[in-house]
Specification:
By secondary structure, the protein is mostly helical. The chain has helices at residues 8-17, 24-37, 42-49, 52-64, 70-83, 88-103, 109-121, 127-139, 146-158, 167-174, 185-198, 205-214, 226-238, 247-261, 266-278, 291-304. Among the domains are: 1-93 and 111-121, no CATH class; 182-290. α1 (8-17) runs antiparallel to α2 (24-37). Residues 71-245 form the RNA-editing substrate-binding complex 6 protein domain.
Length: 305
C-alpha cells in the first residue's frame, strides 16, 4: 500500500493509520516514498516537513533504526539527502547502523554508493566510516556498475575525501569494456568532477580520454545539459589537460549555443570562463552586447550608410 500510494499525503495517512503495525522496512519505505513524491516540488516538500504526520514518521524511523537492514539504511539515507533534511536526532542512530552493517560486510555496491552520495549531499563526513566504505568497495569493485562508480567517486570528491587506495581500481573498472559505454550524461559529468578533485592528468589519462570520448558527438554529447558540459570543461581545465581531437571545440560550441539561447546561471558562467581561459579559448561570447549597445551600433551603421 505504501509503495502504491499516489502522493506524500496518502503515504503519511497510511503511516498514521498503521503506525503500530509498521516494521523497520515499512517505515524506511515510507520515508523513501515521500522523498520521491516531493523530489521535484519544493512547496510540497516544505509543507510536508511541517506536517505532524511526517514528524511522527521520523520518530518511527528513529525507533526502528537498530532493526534497519542494509537496504533500509541506504533508503533512509537517500531519502534524507533527497529532501535535504537531516534531523540531528537521526545522526547517531543512522551512523551507528551504517557501522553495524559495515562490520558484517552486509552492504551491496548500490548501498555503499548511495550512502556516500547521501553523506555528500548532507555534508556529513564520518571519516572512519568513509575509510571502511572505501576498503569494502575495493574488495567488491568488479560488482560496481557505472552508476555505483559515479555516485561513489562523486560523493568522495564532494566530501574532499582522498580515496587514494580506491581510485586506481575504480578507474580500471570504469574503463573496462562495456562499462563506460553504458553511462548516462550525469554519470560522465560526475566522474569528470570526481577525477578533477581526486585524481591527476597523468595517472588518470585513460579515464579522462574515455570521459571525453563518451561526452563527444561520437558518444552521447547531444544528451548533455550545458551544465554537464561546463563541468567537463572545468574538470579538464583543473587538471591542465586538453580534451583530445575536436572534442574541445564541440564542447565549446554546445555551451555557446545554449548560452545564446538562454544565459547560463552565474556559477556556470564563472566556471566556464575560468575553464576556457585555462584551456586557451576565447570567452567574449559569454558577455554578449547589451540591447542598448546593439541598438546604438545599428543606428551608427545606418547613419554611416
Amino acid at each position: 500500500q505504501i509503495v502504491k500510494a499516489a502522493d506524500f499525503d496518502s503515504v503519511l495517512t497510511l503511516v498514521r493509520q498503521k503506525r503500530t503495525e509498521l516494521n523497520s522496512v515499512n517505515v524506511a519505505t515510507a520515508l523513501h516514498r515521500v522523498a520521491i513524491h516531493t523530489k521535484r516540488n519544493r512547496a510540497d516538500r516544505d509543507r510536508m516537513l511541517r506536517d505532524p504526520r511526517f514528524i511522527s514518521l521520523l520518530d518511527s524511523v528513529q525507533e526502528c533504526a537498530p532493526e534497519c537492514n542494509p537496504r533500509s539504511v541506504s533508503d533512509v539515507m537517500w531519502a534524507f539527502a533527497t529532501m535535504q533534511h537531516w534531523p540531528p536526532t537521526m545522526l547517531k542512530p543512522m551512523l551507528t547502523q551504517v557501522a553495524v552493517h559495515l562490520k558484517s560486510s552486509a552492504f551491496e555496491p548500490q548501498h555503499l554508493s548511495l550512502i556516500i552520495w547521501a553523506f555528500a549531499i548532507l555534508q556529513c563526513k564520518p571519516v572512519k566510516l568513509l575509510e571502511q566504505i572505501e576498503m569494502q568497495a575495493m574488495s567488491n569493485i568488479d560488482r560496481f556498475n557505472m552508476q555505483n562508480c559515479a555516485n561513489l567517486l562523486w560523493g568522495f570528491a564532494k566530501l574532499n575525501y582522498q580515496a587514494d587506495a580506491l581510485l586506481p581500481g575504480l578507474t580500471a573498472r570504469v574503463t573496462s569494456p562495456g562499462v563506460l559505454s553504458e553511462s548516462k550524461p550525469v554519470e560522465v559529468s560526475d566522474l569528470a568532477f570526481a577525477v578533477a578533485v581526486l585524481g591527476s592528468a597523468e595517472k588518470d589519462a585513460p579515464l579522462l580520454d574515455a570521459i571525453a570520448t563518451r561526452g563527444s558527438s561520437a558518444g552521447i554529447l547531444p544528451s548533455f545539459t550545458s551544465r554537464q558540459v561546463v563541468t567537463m570543461l572545468w574538470a579538464f581545465a583543473r587538471l591542465r589537460a586538453t580534451p583530445p581531437g575536436a572534442i574541445l571545440s564541440e564542447w565549446v560550441s554546445v555551451v555557446r549555443a545554449s548560452h545564446e539561447a538562454k544565459p547560463l546561471l552565474a556559477a556556470d558562467q564563472r566556471n566556464c570562463r575560468r575553464a576556457l581561459e585555462a584551456l586557451g579559448q576565447e570567452t567574449e561570447w559569454l558577455d554578449p552586447p547589451k540591447v542598448e549597445e546593439e541598438e546604438g551600433a545599428a543606428v551608427a551603421a545606418a547613419a554611416e550608410a
